[in-house]
Design a protein that fits this description.
47% of the residues are buried. The chain contains 14 helices and twelve strands.
């Protein structure tokens, strides 16, 4: 399916009138709730529906879809989730971060939920355990918050010395405090000073980057794994280039778009795995009994062209550990 056709599917499905869907009494209705935006998330969303198709469910044939996009405004998610439950969807796919999953869980304790999140769902209260969720929710956890320390270690290896390193966080993220805590521990063990700077849809990136360079003279930056940041990756990459600031991100989509480095699991695969989980739920399996899927492979991706533009030489030891080198 071409990308333009897929975007058309997203908009068209959301616009189907309720009476038309009501005529298809045996057709399950998926409520697709995301903290991201449809165009930016198109590749990952396509992976989710490709997995659903592999399990036998195709939108427009034997599956109807109600889309709700928060577009980085997490305060909208509770209202969007409640709207889906009022429409009595068959189940909810809560993707694009923990905030989506939490909003869906707060809206219903009975409608099945399949999520894609970067954090541990147990302390968030989404499930009782990873192996046996024991609630109406299951899905995929990328456990990327715990990888923040490793990202900081990689960027410090690339920029040795005693200079400060920044952590860009979105305070609206439900687990921002955990990300900060993990980064502080790693910075302390490496003997580097950590500067935490907030950025959100309201504050913007220009202020954050200018403050870092004018007042803290940071040498590198770690960008929190954050759906809103994912949706603004081109702007973030441009800002890092403008200020000649080495940056490391959590998914390969950043270096593939011109960012310097990334370390983490595949977000594309996470959405595909969530689609497989959703297909199992549609076939009658209970979320309470479906174990949370976790990644088994983590990739270090380096963009050599960006490194050259920043005047950086990648240490041979770091280059040897890279799973993918973009030239």
């Amino acid at each position: 399916m071409k990308r333009r056709e897929f975007i058309g599917l997203l908009g068209g499905a959301a616009a189907w009138p309720v009476p038309v869907r009501a005529q298809q009494l045996d057709t399950p209705v998926l409520g697709f709730l995301s903290g991201r935006a449809p165009d930016e998330a198109a590749t990952h969303t396509a992976a989710f529906f490709r997995a659903l198709a592999d399990t036998g469910f195709i939108p427009g044939q034997n599956l109807a879809v109600e889309y709700r996009w928060a577009e980085g405004r997490y305060d909208r998610l509770p209202i969007l989730a409640q709207d889906l439950t009022r429409r009595r969807v068959s189940f909810i796919a809560a993707v694009g971060g923990s905030n989506s999953a939490l909003a869906a869980k707060a809206a219903t304790s009975t409608t099945p939920i399949v999520f894609v999140i970067g954090d541990d769902p147990v302390p968030l209260g989404l499930v009782h355990s990873m192996n046996r969720p024991g609630s109406n929710a299951t899905g995929v956890s990328l456990v990327t918050a715990a990888l923040g320390g490793k990202r900081l270690e990689y960027i410090c290896e690339l920029t040795p010395g005693s200079g400060s390193v920044a952590l860009l966080v979105n305070p609206a993220n439900s687990n921002a405090a955990e990300h900060v805590s993990e980064a502080r521990k790693a910075a302390s063990s490496l003997g580097r000073h950590l500067v935490v700077t907030p950025a959100s849809a309201e504050t913007g990136f220009e202020t954050a980057f200018k403050t870092l360079m004018d007042h803290h003279a940071v040498r590198a930056i770690v960008v929190q794994n954050e759906p809103f940041f994912d949706s603004q990756r081109e702007q973030l990459i441009a800002m890092a280039a403008r200020y000649a600031l080495p940056a490391i991100y959590h998914i390969r989509e950043f270096p593939a778009t011109g960012g310097l480095m990334s370390y983490g699991p595949s977000l594309l695969d996470a959405y595909y795995q969530a689609g497989l989980q959703a297909g199992r739920v549609l076939k009658g399996e209970k979320p309470a009994e479906l174990p949370i899927v976790q990644p088994t492979k983590f990739e270090l991706v380096i963009n050599l062209k960006t490194a050259s533009a920043l005047g950086l030489t990648i240490p041979p030891t770091l280059l040897a550990r890279a799973d993918e080198v973009i030239e």
